[in-house]
Amino acid sequence: MISEQMDAEFHEVANEIAKNSPYQRKESEERTMMTVHEMGDLLGIKKTDRYWLLHKGFFKTKVVLGKTWIDIASFEKWYANQVKYKKINGEEPGKELKAWSYSPQELAQELGVTDSVLYDILKRENIETVTVDYWKRIPKDSFDKWYVSQSRYRTRADREKDLAAEAATITMPEMARLLGTTRSTVYSILDNPNYKEFFDFVVIADKKRITKESFQRFLDGQDRYHLDARIEYSEVAAEENMALADFRRKKLFKSGIRRGNGNKNYLTRAEAAMLAKVSKPTIDYWANKGHYTIVKIGELVRIPRAEFEDWLNYRENIEEK
Length: 321
Prior knowledge:
It contains 17 helices and twelve strands. It has helices at residues 2-20, 36-43, 47-55, 72-79, 95-100, 104-111, 115-124, 140-147, 156-167, 172-179, 183-191, 193-196, 212-221, 230-250, 269-276, 280-288, 305-320, and strands at 33-35, 61-64, 67-71, 101-102, 130-132, 135-139, 169-170, 201-204, 207-211, 266-267, 295-297, 300-304. The strands form four sheets. Strands 1-3-2 form a three-stranded antiparallel beta sheet. It starts with a helix and ends with a helix.
């Protein structure tokens, strides 16, 4: 019992002496410098690349007894602001760089465009870029400022949000396909005072679209245009058979001569020219400009009557203005 008490007192005195001794062992301080060789091993690069980085002045250095040492804090700062070199065992490079900037490839993927289109956007829109160790970067605040100023290009997140709105709308070309007509005719329909009140529009990704609900309202509110254009095309095909039979029987077709067909849905070029009081070449010119559709089946050339009449009405309204 006495022995145990003496041992405890002895250890207490020994600890007190060690605590106050000027020769006590100190914990090793954290290293602040490393050799060029250690830096190379850390990045897994050879001697040439090690000294290339050293002479580029990326790090703070100190020469002691002819040997170059690299400041570890400056190395870590450089490492967090570049993406070319990666530690063999350690965190990914460019942590700080990625926090304040994008690479062109990242933005191209985000906007859903090719790299070449992205570079064209950067140049055309004069978006600020910076060069970091020969690599082009786009500051996030610069990109964000441009992005909110336009609506043509959409990020991945915004494109996902647009899907629901797009599902409830159609484009003008889609409307043209649904009606079996041209875009020009669709625009004349949308500008027509008799039809304007039917349509509601929304703008998605800088493109004007028509709500499906209002398009259905247009279909229900008039009887000139219909969804199933195939019925009218089969009518033209039937007319072709009749005309060819007539040609074989009576040989009435001569080069350049066409008869009126009395069809309520289609006009011949001659009928269209007479209706518009212009020449047949003008009829062809208007068709080539996309103002209405030209339907060709065999020898026959026909023009949808509704499209042509709407084009004339649209043209007259423009001339009056």
